Amino acid sequence: MLNPLWLKTFAAAAAAPSFTETARRLGLTQPTVSEHVRQLEQAVNRRLFLRDTHSLTLTSDGRSLLVHAQIILDAHERAERLFDAPRLRGRVRLGTSDDLAMGPLPDVLAAFRLAHPEVELDLTIGVTSELYKLLDDNGLDVMIGKRRRGDRRGQTLHKEALLWRAKEGLRITADEPLPLILLREPSVTRTLTLDALARAGRSWQIVCTSTSYAGCQAAARAGLGITVQPSHLSTAGLAAPAGAAQLPPLPQVEFIVIAAPAPNKPTRALTEILMRSTLT
Predict the structure, then answer these.
(1) Backbone angles phi, psi at 30, to 5 degrees
(2) Of 159, 194, 211, 258, which is most buried with the most CB atoms under 10 A?
(3) For the chain (length 280 residues), average pLDDT per consecutive 10?
(4) Count of other CB atoms within 10 angstroms of residue 154
């Protein structure tokens, strides 16, 4: 077994000109440093240093072990920080749009659970407009979704493109209304889509509405018409429609995180993880 104390001494010795200097840096005695290295060499059954009265050099086995030692020591330090920190308890109510839940959110939830295993997570998935209302009515502690036009609250996570998507091979023509599959009102994506079409003077007809992106994707895969989705969502079975050059460009959508006023400690912890996550 590789004792972390031996590995720490070994890593320090690899960066020092001598065992005497290693001892000074670690606050140990020189015989203690020598003993740690001896025990480590015995454990791995390899010579780790070439030493004489003037120099201290790693062997090839020592250089190989140093790579693993640094990985082990880093993991050991992270574990100590995790378990030394005071444990959070309580509950945090997170609201998220379904496109984020279908995309990168699981990684964030896993990181939060690992860091704070005793916090209960209450997850609500809905369209962004519903999440804003829940947050304002004290039904959520924090929400992640799209920024509404004119609303300046929240911190930006990231911005990404909206894409036209349809069943592979579906073709659109300029002289027919565009068959649209959109989220039910009110919806940030729906508003941005219809605004883009209005500015371009393009006629359209809503053929299907859904409360979720999953529903819009299902209808699009069935060939009912064309939908719009953020670029991070899976495009399995979907593609840009044939003749897409006739469609107006769509704007970027901004994803944000908003915490309720006076957030509790679990809410602040989750917000910090969200701001450091793959969502940004």
Answers:
(1) -65, -40
(2) 258
(3) 83 86 86 87 87 80 87 82 71 88 84 86 87 90 85 83 87 83 87 88 89 88 89 81 83 87 87 79
(4) 20
The 3-state DSSP class for residue 161 equals: strand
Please give the structure tokens belonging to residue 9: 């001494």
Beta strands 56-58; 49-51: pairing state: antiparallel
* Residue given tokens 């910090």 in the structure block: 272
What would the pLDDT profile of 204-221 be if each residue is shown by its tens digit? 889 999 988 888 988 999
State the pairing for strand pair 155-167/252-259.
Answer: antiparallel
- In the chain, the amino acid numbered 233 is L
pLDDT in tens, 189-206: 888 889 888 888 888 889
**Residue 252 C-alpha from the chain's centroid:** 19
Q: Are 232 and 255 in contact (CB under 8 A)?
A: no
SS3 240: coil
Residue 48 corresponds to which amino acid? L
* Closest C-alpha among 137, 144, 161, 150 to residue 108: 144
Pairing label, strands 238-239, 155-167: antiparallel
Instruction: Name the residue among 120, 112, 121, 117 with its Cα closest to residue 87.
Output: 117
Q: Which residue has the tokens 């036009």?
A: 149
- Written as six digits, the tokens of 237 are 């079975």
Q: All domains of the chain, ordered by start, with CATH?
A: 4-84 (1.10.10.10), 90-157+255-275 (3.40.190.10), 160-253 (3.40.190.10)
Q: What is the rounded CA–CA span in Å between residue 18 and residue 5?
A: 18
Here the tokens at position 233 are 């969502």
Residues 80, 185: Cα–Cα separation, whole Å: 49
Q: What is the pLDDT of residue 84?
A: 62
